[in-house]
């Protein structure tokens, strides 16, 4: 009878699995702070992709971990860059997979910031140009969805304009609309080698104390033509998710970030919590709060748990 009256149900279709791709060959290396998450080089990615497909996961988001970093993050918009090659490979060999490209510069800049730096400050508009170039190169490689995460003002309209002009009018934008300056990103920065080398990201990512600012951020992205809105991180921001779902008629995405993953993994490895039930409780809470889709490092685990049922 409980299942008869259950209001919120998690489906495999809701899950988006993040992949970290490194340059080089023969690499499969576990990320130290994220047990069960691996860096792959493209030649070994089939292992991971076959598993994802066999578990019934239909979407991935791709993060590149390049060797070459410079001031202007040039590997981010290199047409034969690590993300572009990965997208092309996946679309050729796994055409049914929905491939989302994370569009940012921080993994590619030597200073680790998400934009161009001048005199210690991030330049908004100049960064938009590079971000747009990155998005176009990803669309050209075959990305199904562009997901800009650098939090520069006006990034949705800049990227929409750039994509349209380049002929990619049908490639949607999944905006990291509401992205907080969060300590929950710690393990990701370890995985993506993207820690800022000076300062922090508080001039472009949001203050965790703010709710009205989240509405303004989402409103502007909505008006600029975003096709999906994202709230990130997820767990400490379920109230914001509900707010977004009630206000904006767009698919809402929760990013269940690295720190949220690692905390549960660590506790489970110590035998302090029951991993399976806590993972399902947590993912269900995000859907209950209004998320339609969840980007999560637990996607494979959750798909297995759903099969067991
Ligand atoms: C950066 C980016 C970040 C994440 C994804 N893209 C965070 C950041 O360092 O600001 C974090 C994801 C995670 O913690 O799982 N553009």
Number of domains: 1
Main structural class: alpha/beta
**Architecture, CATH level 2?**
Alpha-Beta Barrel
First CA to last CA: what distance? 16 Å
User: What would CATH call the class?
Assistant: Alpha Beta
CATH superfamily: Aldolase class I
Q: What would you call the quaternary organization?
A: single chain
The number of helical elements comes to 10
List bound small molecules.
ligand PBG
Give me the Rg, rounded. Answer: 18 Å
Report the principal-axis shape. globular
**Main sheet characteristics:** 10 strands, mixed
What series of H and E elements makes up the topology? EEEHEHEEEHEHEHHEHEHHEH
How are the elements arranged and paired?
Blueprint: E1 15-22, E2 28-30, E3 38-41, H1 45-55, E4 59-65, H2 82-93, E5 98-103, E6 116-118, E7 121-123, H3 124-141, E8 145-148, H4 155-165, E9 174-179, H5 186-192, H6 212-224, E10 228-232, H7 238-247, E11 252-256, H8 258-269, H9 275-288, E12 293-296, H10 299-308
Parallel strand pairs: 1-3, 1-4, 1-12, 4-5, 5-8, 9-10, 10-11, 11-12
Antiparallel strand pairs: 2-3, 6-7
Helix pairs in contact: 2-3, 3-4
Bound molecules: ligand PBG.
Structural overview:
The chain is an alpha/beta fold and 309 residues long. It has one domain (12-308): Aldolase class I (TIM Barrel), CATH 3.20.20.70. It contains ten helices and twelve strands. It has helices at residues 45-55, 82-93, 124-141, 155-165, 186-192, 212-224, 238-247, 258-269, 275-288, 299-308; strands at residues 15-22, 28-30, 38-41, 59-65, 98-103, 116-118, 121-123, 145-148, 174-179, 228-232, 252-256, 293-296. The strands form two sheets. Strands 1, 2, 3, 4, 5, 8, 9, 10, 11 and 12 form a ten-stranded mixed sheet that branches. A hairpin with a 7-residue loop joins strand 2 and strand 3. The protein starts with 14 loop residues before the first strand and ends with a helix. The structure holds ligand PBG. Residues 102, 104, 106, 114, 149-150, 185, 188-189, 194, 201, 257-258 line the site of ligand PBG. Ligand PBG binds next to helix 5.
